[in-house]
Design goal:
- Helix content is 22%, strand content 27%.
- With 476 residues, it is an alpha/beta fold.
- The protein has two domains: 134 residues, Sandwich (Immunoglobulin-like), CATH 2.60.40; 277 residues, Glycosidases (TIM Barrel, Alpha-Beta Barrel), CATH 3.20.20.
- Strands 11, 12, 13, 14, 15, 16, 19, 20, 21 and 22 form a ten-stranded mixed β-sheet that branches.
- Helix 7 packs across helix 8.
- It is globular and about 75 Å long.
- It comes from Bacteroides acidifaciens.
- This is DUF1735 domain-containing protein.
Length: 476
Amino acid sequence: MNMKYITSGLLAAMIVSSTAFLTSCADELEVGKNIDESVYSGIYENNAYLRDGKSNLVSKIVELHGETYATTVKMGLSKTPNTATSARVKIDAAYLETYNKAHNTDFALYPQDLVTFADEGILTVNANTKSAEVEMTIRAGEDLQEDKTYVIPVTLSDQSSDITIKDEDAKHCIYLVKDMRNAGDTYKGEDVVKGYLFFEVNGVNPLNTFSFQLENGKLMWDVIVLFAANINYDSEAGRPRVQCNPNVQYLLDNNETFLQPLRKRGVKVLLGLLGNHDITGLAQLSDQGAKDFAREVAQYCKAYNLDGVNYDDEYSKSPDLSNPSLTTPSAAAAARLCYETKLAMPDKLVTVFAYGQMYGVSTVDGVDVSEWIDIVVPNYGSSARPIGNLTNKECAGVAMEFHLGIGGNLSSSTARNLMNNGYGWYMGFAPSPEKYSSIFNRLTGVETLYGSQIKQPTIFYKKDDPTPYKYPDDLR
């Protein structure tokens, strides 16, 4: 092989290539032209954000069952600082107006003299770490009104010069406080596994919640669902709406008789919503359709003094995609509905039955699912799984169907499994007094969870009748 010709060829090729490169650069570069530096903005900033330290949530519901509630407020940073840096947290009373306007709410400011921060609220992030926490104590007061939501808007201030706060959302953490001191019959401890129960209200009185009582006097079920209202198409308005059958509507119209007695003892009462054999569905609403429907759900909860909603994606037909309120069924559409619902009623529970398309997307508009879903319950015989920043604490680890007698049981071994794996909930569906004998035999693990056995039932309630009857004598 002749190295002379190879060397000459390489040299010629390099000359041609260099000429082409210089010509190309000359065509693209303009000497003296200003460079748009906006695309690089923020890359050197250390952005701060505020969260509740216990839950890592921006918006945290706090229930006062005692005279004090303690938590921490956490400041996180997007980068690890080279040296220690700091900021301070305090109450931003003026922000409440902005918050209420954004959520169309009328929450009151929690008395500021009942809130204290340790170390004067100063948060110091040491070098080579990315967060710091400071203790916050909320005290109860004599003038607090029951069944009212108060807000503690906590904000960052006096931050070091190397800390950047991107916007008002990053700057604030919201605590939604409720006085539950006189409604504590369900309260069995802050971190215990809790009970979540669906009532088929077409045939069963939700006051039968009171049949399930522990030997220590506490009620077993923490949350009940009125199963179920529906999402249906309103042909006159041309949009989806909440539709209540006569049985659901009767309970809502008489909620002081059938629902508020439960709430006064600490039971959360949710409105169940379900598809109903038409073109609308909980997982097939457009962005605007989801926003509109969520606002209607929030109005129902406010008007009838309910504690939230359960969404169940079943029994819907294919949508009419020419309707601007509807879209192709998807988990993303279902997530959007949950997100919009939480925006519309931030102090209420947004819960889902993990079935169909109702559950599976972990972020909406960059906001994690933990901010807009509170509880996830599974199909019978299975356990719910967390996504995003959710944990087992927000999931039911067992689901029992009482009418058909299927699904798991709340046995002692199941109870230990729930506790060992950090589950926050167990679920029951469709209890009725006629089935009490078999139902109560499935709940022996209550003692493992709470250190107190479940009492055998002595009372029950007939449909649409607030009178407590003797069990089992008055069953017939």
